[in-house]
Amino acid sequence: MKVHFIIHEAxxxxxxLALWALHHGYTSTVTRLYEHDPLSSSLDKIDMLxxxxxPQSPATTREECPHFDSLAEQxxxxxxxxxGKAVLGICLGAQLIGAALGAPYERSPEPxxxxxxxxxxEAGRRSANLSAFGSRLEVGHWHNDMPGLTPQxxxxxxSAGCPRQIVQYAPLVFGFQCxxxxxxxxxxxxxxASQMELRQLADRSFVQPPxxxxxxxxxxxxxxxxxxxxxxxxxxxxxxx
Length: 241
Prior knowledge:
Rossmann fold
């Protein structure tokens, strides 16, 4: 199994997702856009494309962020979907999937930063991919926006602050607005990079202070995400070596 990560910023890395791939002995490759790595020009050696989060939005321009080319990423996502690859978007990655399929991102009703519960919809509870999640699960959050919905999209989970937490766009294509990949180390990087944002949003209903973010145990949600990924992998026809 060959997993490829697109990482927009050093403080929004794959976290526990990288540990999952390492544990299974999967081949992992990485495009670090913040180091000006070029996007992959071929999908031949990719079975699963994972697009991580970032402070950008799908509308962010090259002038605003020179290392981020939203349209190029959207084109790669469309190519991966057309080729039958598994595609998983986290936060910004989820919004880019929606945009790539013609569904512009939108502002979330509430910003969410911290660990809060998501609730599975009826479709989510029926989904074999989310069978390890139960009907309600505490997960990580760090966002202001949410992914757009195509006519074919199915919402699998919601939260009190955001109605689009997990969206399935196609059998092998999922957008997670929430962050089940968080680890304490990754959250520490986010805190360090987001001091002004945390101060500005401190009075919002679904924003937790740094000391609370640091105190959370993220291992249970990591394990549930691993179960989701294992189920997704079981549906993929891997490329040949």
